[in-house]
Design goal:
263 residues, alpha/beta, Rossmann fold, nine-stranded mixed β-sheet, two-stranded antiparallel sheet, 11 strands, binds S-adenosylmethionine
Length: 263
């Protein structure tokens, strides 16, 4: 560890949030203070955000083709955590000309983690692009538990990033998800099904499914049998896809059309 980073880590470390660890691509993550599970793959926190969520989902292709001005792309970011998935999505949109409208709704229940992220000086934010720290510092409280920031794109588009701070499993959160849709993409990224089972069960997937458009895409790192079963029962078609890491597969799921869907 360089002297600078050592000094930085000492000054800003927040033991209650968990120990900061550097991943294989140089980006930083945390180990959860209670169950010690890392927030990201050891191969790379940033690489996972880009490769699993932004690239493998197809949203990058949408951005590259250029979203028509009148069209809105909506992303449900489950488990904001350290912010990588949301910010990698924002970054891709900005780099691809930022046309049309992008809306991201992030869900997170760890207040202290969110406060640390908003500071722009959290242990895992070492070396972050100033545009990323600028975006998190711009999040303002707009109503009970709801934070938001808007970003104007150079291509004339607008981005609305909202963060709901509270339990994703609450009626309040799932109601917000359904009202904020229809989502085109879901980044399903809670802790593992063993450590965070409620966020991978049939109840959870059934609650969010009405907020996702038919053929909407859900990406996740877990290919556990219980997760696949719950998704299929909730009305999703699943595919195992190859990864860009040492792990063999990630999961890509598509929300099946059902009676009552808008034509
Ligand atoms: C693996 S981390 C997410 C990493 C994150 N996607 C990123 O890009 O940095 C899982 C996150 O899900 C959050 N989480 C777990 N259960 C939750 C719940 N019931 N409601 C809201 N957030 C939850 C945790 O607090 C944690 O921050």
């Amino acid at each position: 560890m360089s002297g600078f980073i050592e000094l930085f880590m000492t000054k800003f470390s927040a033991p209650a949030l968990g120990e900061a660890r550097q991943t294989g691509d140089g980006s930083w993550t945390l180990a959860h203070p209670d169950h010690a599970e890392w927030y990201h793959s050891a191969d790379g926190a940033l690489a996972e955000a880009k490769s699993l969520y932004v690239e493998s989902s197809g949203i990058l292709g949408d951005f590259q083709r250029g979203t028509p001005d009148a069209e809105t792309v909506r992303v449900l970011d489950v488990g904001l955590g350290l912010g990588y998935n949301a910010l990698a999505t924002i970054d891709a949109w900005l780099r691809c000309g930022s046309r049309g409208r992008l809306e991201i709704l992030s869900l997170e229940n760890n207040d202290a983690l969110f406060e640390a992220m908003r500071s722009g000086e959290a242990p895992w934010q070492v070396g972050w692009d100033p545009q990323w720290t600028g975006a998190v510092k711009n999040l303002d409280l707009v109503s009970d538990g709801l934070w938001q920031a808007t970003i104007a794109g150079s291509g004339g588009g607008e981005l609305l990033w909202r963060v709901f701070l509270g339990d994703a499993l609450s009626d309040h959160a799932t109601g917000l998800v359904v009202r904020s849709g229809p989502f085109d993409y879901v980044w399903q990224d809670p802790f593992s099904p063993e450590k965070n089972p409620g966020m991978w069960g049939l109840e959870w997937f059934s609650a969010i499914t009405p907020g996702v458009r038919p053929d909407g895409c859900l990406m996740t790192y877990s290919v556990a049998r219980t997760v696949r079963d719950a998704l299929e029962t909730a009305g999703w078609r699943i595919e195992k896809i190859p990864t860009t890491t040492r792990k063999k597969n990630w999961l890509k799921a598509f929300r099946l059309a059902r009676p009552g869907d808008p034509k």
